[in-house]
Amino acid sequence: MKHPNILLTGTPGVGKTTLGKELAERCGLTYVNVGELAKEGTLYEGYDEEYDCPILDEDRVIDELEDKMGEGGVIVDYHGCDFFPERWFHIVFVLRTDNSLLYERLQSRGYKAKKLQDNIQCEIFQTIYEEAAESYRSEIVHQLPSNTPEDLERNLDQITQWIEQWRNDNN
Q1: Could you tell me if 99 and 124 are in contact, meaning their C-beta atoms sit under 8 angstroms apart?
Q2: Contact 145, 129 (CB under 8 A)
Q3: Please, what is the average pLDDT of the chain?
Q4: pLDDT digits over 101-131, tens only?
Q5: Annotated binding residue 28
Q6: Are strands 44-48 and 53-56 parallel, antiparallel or unpaired?
Q7: Is 15 annotated as a binding residue?
Q8: pLDDT tens per residue, range 24-71
Q9: Beta carbons of 52 and 96 less than 8 angstroms apart
Q10: pTM metric for this prediction
Q11: 16 marked ligand binding residue
Q12: Binding residue per annotation — 42?
């Protein structure tokens, strides 16, 4: 494997997609937005009326990604992480955003009250970070602030340096 696999996770609205696309472009990696992958392949097992969204078929997502992940050089973007095989990732970044900013971002996406409230609580209680910490070795799980354009640049620089170091150490 010439390139590492990276998981970008965090509550919806924290900036995973912006970071992931830019990182893939800078580092020559493949970017996979699991939500888009599921939409394109209709990888769903139903619809959640309460949250007004499809329910991901996690097994079909795993099957769809298995070969690509084995090749390496993939950035996976998804707001959940506990169903991905631990062996897939060399590093996991959990993006975190201040609640007031997150609220504005999700509101601008048209999230309804319950979905908005539940996602804010998810961020407050560090639900995604805890899920990542329980699912992967602690030394590969890192939290990154994602509030400002400066945070985005710092995160891009930090992860790019990590990728370069990984490539040097593993090739």
Answers
A1: yes
A2: no
A3: 97
A4: 999 999 999 999 999 999 999 999 999 999 9
A5: no
A6: antiparallel
A7: yes
A8: 999 999 999 999 999 999 999 999 999 889 999 999 999 999 999 999
A9: no
A10: 0.96
A11: yes
A12: no
- Residue 130 has, within 13 A of its CA and on its CB side, a CA count of 6
Give me the helix-helix angle, 149-170 and 16-27, nearest 10°. Answer: 40
- CA neighbor of 122 nearest in space, from 114, 17, 46, 61: 114
Does 46 carry a binding-site annotation? no
Measure the CA–CA gap between 9 and 133, rounded to whole angstroms: 12
As given in the structure block, the two tokens for residue 26 are 């800078």
Q: Has 21 been labeled as part of a binding site? A: no
Place of tokens 């955003």: 97
- Both tokens of residue 10? 């965090």
Cα 85–chain centre separation: 14
Residue 169 is encoded by which pair of tokens? 């150490």
> Residue 163 to residues 3, 34, 89, 160: CA-CA distances in angstroms?
8, 21, 13, 5
State the chain's maximal CA–CA distance in angstroms.
49
